[in-house]
Specification:
By secondary structure, the protein is mainly alpha-helical. The protein has 15 helices and no strands. The radius of gyration is 19 Å and the shape is globular.
Length: about 325
């Protein structure tokens, strides 16, 4: 476990993150030219074909489909991810508002989190606008998630360490998927490319805050509370990862994707299992630092198939060979 983060150092990092939000920020309706012909959703544009960074895009079934089918499924996939992302960001904002409501005066978390809430508001607008432009009528996350999301924000104040662990569980997979698409070197349509560039730039601060929040708090927990979080940590990661990454079966069937393909991609195939492990290399590093990897939790990470080598630094690209 690393040395405890002092409150002074924590506050300084939050001030740096807050200044970053002031100096580098985006508005989806001024920083994206939605009416640019290059950004039009054209169902004949091959740049909508999914890259191999997406487990579905890398699957042999998808790659064997006619170009028209791959484009249609690519547009559908981007719309579903954007809708789920919008719903997750909405949950984050409500939980963060619940958390800041009870903060005392002169608490640096208030300023930073209200910056983050502002940015997440813009992200929800950006994601929903993409969904609207695609014409894909998707409900987003699975029904159980949409229903449970009504009460999950209460954990912002009731159990904040679990809530911000959940935030990482949602943010890390989306961040990984977007960076993978941009790093792939394969063509990506300019509209999702611009959205990803904006989202990655601002999400870096949000992920940093969640890491620092846990670094401040977890080392101060007693043995029982830290032990409970060590077990909850991988469970939260896996459950919310599946919410973000796995499309609803009914929606996938309507898009023409066989059920066996969804099962294979998420997460039975070798490529799918590899991606699942890679999604959480950063949080495995964090769990090691916080002493949340122990004889009880390690087997759970392995059973959930999200174990593996921790990242050496945040945002480290996945190795080509395990």
């Amino acid at each position: 476990m690393t040395a405890n983060l002092t409150r002074k150092a924590y506050d300084e990092r939050l001030r740096t993150l807050s200044e970053g939000s002031v100096n580098v920020n985006f508005n989806p309706f001024t920083d994206i030219d939605w009416d640019d012909p290059e950004f039009a959703v054209d169902t004949s544009d091959p740049r909508w074909v999914l890259t191999s960074a997406d487990a579905l895009g890398a699957h042999p079934w998808y790659r064997e489909q006619p170009l028209e089918t791959r484009i249609r499924i690519g547009i559908w996939r981007w719309a579903v991810i954007a809708k789920v992302g919008m719903q997750f960001e909405n949950l984050l904002m409500r939980g963060a508002l619940d958390y800041v409501f009870q903060l005392g005066n002169k608490n640096e978390e208030f300023r930073y989190l209200t910056h983050e809430i502002t940015e997440e508001t813009h992200h929800t607008q950006m994601f929903q606008e993409l969904v609207n432009r695609t014409g894909v009528d998707t409900a987003g996350g699975k029904r159980w998630f949409r229903q449970v999301s009504r009460i999950l924000p209460l954990f912002g104040s009731l159990y904040p360490e679990a809530f911000f662990t959940g935030i990482l569980a949602g943010e890390e997979p989306i961040d990984h998927l977007q960076k993978g698409a941009l790093r792939s070197g394969e063509p990506v349509h300019p509209l999702p490319r611009r959205i990803m560039q904006i989202h990655i730039a601002e999400e870096a601060r949000h992920i940093s805050f969640a890491h620092e929040f846990l670094r401040l708090r977890v080392p101060r927990f007693g043995r029982a509370r830290r032990g409970a979080l060590s077990v909850l940590f991988p469970l939260i990661m896996r459950v919310l990862c599946d919410v973000i990454m796995i499309p609803d079966k009914k929606s996938a069937a309507l898009a023409g994707i066989p059920d066996w393909v969804i099962k294979d991609v998420f997460w039975k195939s070798e490529a799918g299992r590899k991606m699942l492990r890679e999604l959480f290399s950063d949080v495995r590093m964090l769990a090691e630092e916080l002493g949340l990897m122990n004889k009880v939790s390690r087997p759970l990470w392995r059973a959930l198939r999200i174990d593996g080598r921790p990242a050496r630094f945040r945002g480290e690209p996945a190795p080509l060979i395990d």
